[in-house]
Design goal:
By secondary structure, the protein is mainly α. 60% of the residues lie in helices and 4% in strands. It has 26 helices and 7 strands. Strands 4-3-5-7-6 form a 5-stranded mixed sheet. A hairpin with a 2-residue loop joins β1 and β2. α1 (2-31) packs antiparallel against α7 (117-138), α7 packs antiparallel against α8 and α12 packs antiparallel against α13. The chain is globular.
């Protein structure tokens, strides 16, 4: 009976994690207005699923968007199919999104909530996959720890219910890596096929998953290196160079097959979703979207030639998305960070944002795992080339952990060289691996010695309770969560912004604020995917911007400004970035001088949620 009860503990605990995580995300899905990216992703996904037409939002792969749209197909929805934004313009996703959600007589709240069902399910599936892989590495009970950390992470709960590609990318990275490592460690045709299919699915989640291709090539090289070392040390008469060369050729063939399977999955998906996308329209859109960045490149001619062929145009549309991402990354993104605004990025952006957005208890567990791992390295020296035998043994026994660590290092290095600094969400693909390795380190630390084991286990337990407390204390404002290093969530905007803090999630809360105070008119400078006129009323919400000046001059006593817009307008600029004085809210800072210090903006009379600052201009 005791053995049976223990066997049931892990499945029951996992189900509890899933229920709590899913319930929290579903509650948030109903509370929050559409964030910026959902204004483009929801209508795009609807057109994929409803019309099999991929003219909108080609800069992101289709999987998450198309899945999110499936619940919408059962609704009597009006789509602006006769609008020039759809029929003639190129990728007018923001205009179509505004008309589709807010100006076509549709129930925007119902559509947004239903569209968030599949993102929530995909997030929960990621929790399950984390548990499955962690269970293989450290056992069923210990496998619950990384599932718990991921499933109740403020960042995961915040982004896990949005129709965006970030959590989908986390799922894709994890799925493809799991099956690829399984193939390397248990080689068979079936596992190679599964690895190819998983890679294809991953490539349909977000274009950052293209990084998996060089990653897998390098991981195969490390695995072969381990095989070569162990073969040499086995006592068999073998020439290491010849063994490695022949193995490299063998793996090259296997990888080519796997990549071909992945490509087939990609082409199949794009072929279906471009079925009713007129080829003339695709050619025109492709030429327009390539822009100056690629027009002079031979790639442009090749891309247009692919788009012009009925057989190759699905893969052409996939390549177009990759090229659009490269074009955007080269240009950077205007962002506020640590007191300044720029569009060229900071190399230290992601490490700092991770330290500010990750709960301190999980940071402690990660630090514990890192110190435990480094101690093991110095003790056993498995990575020193003078100890090749230990290196071979390590790669043979602990290859899954090595693969996770290598993926984290590779992805973070790439991200730190990017100019596109718009949120900790871009690190989500590495979070499952970070939590699994952290749990593994905690396990080694607790079980290392019999003496003091209870104290060490209690310490880890207190960190887990603290972790839960962080999520509970920040709820329901999880998108804006920052830890105690910033002084807590209410002060996080002073350090980071954009999707780290303000993505437009509080507009419905602003509508409640206006209604409760019987405000007749309010000037609104809003950043996000919602519509102030839709939620507050066209006669109540007056669109506003810095250049419009003091609204009280026009008899409007109230002003609401998204903190992302306000900080981008007021904070000092750096790295050659320029800003017009008319866009700098100089009249507001003159009326309400900010206190000196990082991230200080004019003190609001009220804050709605965390991200909308409200001023009573009496």
């Amino acid at each position: 009976m005791q053995i049976k009860s223990r066997a049931l503990f892990a499945p029951i605990a996992l189900c509890l994690i899933l229920v709590v995580s899913g319930s929290l995300m579903w509650n948030l899905a109903g509370q929050e207005s559409a964030i910026m990216d959902e204004l483009a992703h929801i209508p795009a996904g609807y057109t994929y699923a409803k019309f099999l037409d991929y003219r909108l939002n080609p800069e992101h792969p289709p999987l998450l968007k198309a899945l999110a749209a499936l619940p919408l197909l059962s609704l009597p929805i009006s789509f602006p199919a006769t609008s020039a934004h759809w029929t003639h313009e190129t990728n007018a996703q923001w205009d179509i999104g505004t008309i589709f959600l807010y100006d076509s007589g549709n129930n925007a709240d119902q559509m947004i909530s239903l569209a968030r069902i599949f993102p929530i399910l995909l997030t929960l599936l990621t929790v399950v996959l984390i548990y499955v892989w962690a269970k293989d590495v450290m056992g069923s009970e210990w496998g619950l720890l990384p599932a718990f950390l991921f499933g109740l992470s403020p960042t995961v709960l915040a982004h896990g219910h949005y129709v965006t590609t970030d959590l989908a990318a986390a799922f894709g990275f994890l799925l493809a890596s799991f099956y690829f490592v399984r193939y390397l460690t248990h080689q068979s045709k079936k596992n190679l096929l599964y690895a190819g299919i998983a890679l294809g699915i991953a490539e349909l989640t977000k274009f950052s998953t293209v990084l998996l291709i060089p990653l897998f090539v390098m991981l195969a090289g490390f695995f072969l290196l381990g095989e070569t070392i162990r073969k040499k040390d086995s006592g068999d008469e073998v020439r290491p160079f010849r063994f490695f060369t022949r193995g490299a050729l063998r793996y090259a063939g296997k990888l080519a097959f796997m990549f071909a399977i992945a490509l087939a999955v990609i082409v199949a998906a794009y072929a279906v979703l471009t079925l009713h996308y007129p080829i003339e329209k695709q050619i025109h859109d492709t030429q327009y979207l390539l822009g100056d960045f690629f027009k002079s490149s031979p790639l442009a001619s090749f891309e247009i030639a692919l788009a012009s062929n009925p057989i190759t145009r699905p893969i052409a549309h996939y390549f177009l998305g990759i090229m659009m991402v490269l074009q955007r990354s080269s240009g950077g993104n205007t962002a506020y960070f640590l007191g300044t605004v720029t569009n060229t990025g900071w190399w230290y952006y992601f490490p700092v944002v991770f330290l500010l957005k990750e709960p301190i208890p999980s940071l402690l567990l990660i630090l514990l795992a890192l110190s435990t791992g480094l101690a093991s390295v110095f003790k056993k020296s498995p990575f020193l080339m003078s100890r090749m035998r230990r290196l071979g043994e390590y790669l043979g026994i602990h290859f899954a952990e090595f693969a996770m660590l290598f993926i984290i290092a590779f992805y973070w290095t790439y991200s730190m060289h990017s100019n596109l600094n718009i949120g900790v969400r871009h690190l989500l693909p590495t979070l499952p691996f970070i939590y699994i390795l952290a749990a593994l380190g905690v396990r080694h630390w607790i079980l290392a010695k019999e003496k003091g084991r209870l104290v060490r286990a209690s310490t880890a337990g207190l960190c887990a309770i603290w972790f839960i407390g962080e999520t509970v204390a920040a709820y329901p404002y999880l998108l804006s969560y920052t830890n105690e290093i910033t002084g807590g969530t209410q002060n996080g905007y002073r350090y980071v912004d954009d999707s780290n803090y303000d993505w437009g999630q509080d507009l419905k809360r602003l509508a409640s604020f206006v209604q409760e105070r019987h405000i007749q008119k309010i000037a609104v400078d809003y950043f996000g995917g919602g519509s102030p006129e839709y939620y507050l009323g066209k006669n109540v919400a007056i669109p506003w911007a810095s250049k419009d000046g003091d609204p009280s001059i026009q008899g409007i006593e109230w002003l609401a400004v998204s903190i992302n817009t306000l900080e981008s307008s007021i904070a000092p600029v750096s790295n050659g970035f320029t800003r017009k004085s008319e866009n700098s809210y100089e009249w507001l800072t003159a009326l309400r001088p900010p206190k000196p210090g990082m991230g200080e903006v004019p003190q609001p009379d009220y804050r709605v949620g965390t991200s909308i600052f409200v001023y009573h201009m009496r």
